Amino acid sequence: MPKINKRLYGPAQLGNTTATRYTVPASTRTVIRQVTVINPEGGSSRTYTFSIGADAAATRIRDAKTIAAGVEHVIYGPFTMEAAEVFAAHASAATAVVMVVDGEEYTI
To answer: Cα 16 from chain centroid?
Structure first.
């Protein structure tokens, strides 16, 4: 089972509506090792939400988590995802929060 370390998403600004940020390729298992969330804005706190699978209360790993201006949150996995599963995310304000997702893809 070959392993590839890679950046799965970002760095990119999140929108204010939930969108798929990564989809596990066919015949692949992905392990998310780290999610970094940054609020580079000068004065406003924001919130962010991310989930594995279709966005719903039961699939959220972080739900409306507040991040102050100038702060960075690092969330460590592992979060294992199977082929065709999605990682979805959004923020409370468009272009206010930046996200980077790092992990590994395993060909199965």
So the answer is: 14
Q: Is the pTM of this model over 0.90?
A: yes
Residue tagged 């089972």 (tokens): 1
Give me 55's structure tokens: 């966005």
Residue 103, C-beta contacts closer than 8 angstroms, at least 6 positions apart? 5, 6, 8, 30, 31, 32, 33, 34, 77
pLDDT tens, N- to C-terminus, the chain (108 residues): 789 999 999 999 999 999 999 999 999 999 999 999 999 987 899 999 999 999 999 999 999 999 999 999 999 999 999 999 999 999 999 989 999 999 999 998
Distance CA 50, CA 63 (A): 7
Q: Provide long-range contacts, Cβ within 8 A and 24+ apart, for 54-59.
A: 54/86, 54/88, 55/18, 55/88, 55/90
> Do residues 90 and 15 make contact, with C-beta atoms less than 8 angstroms apart?
yes
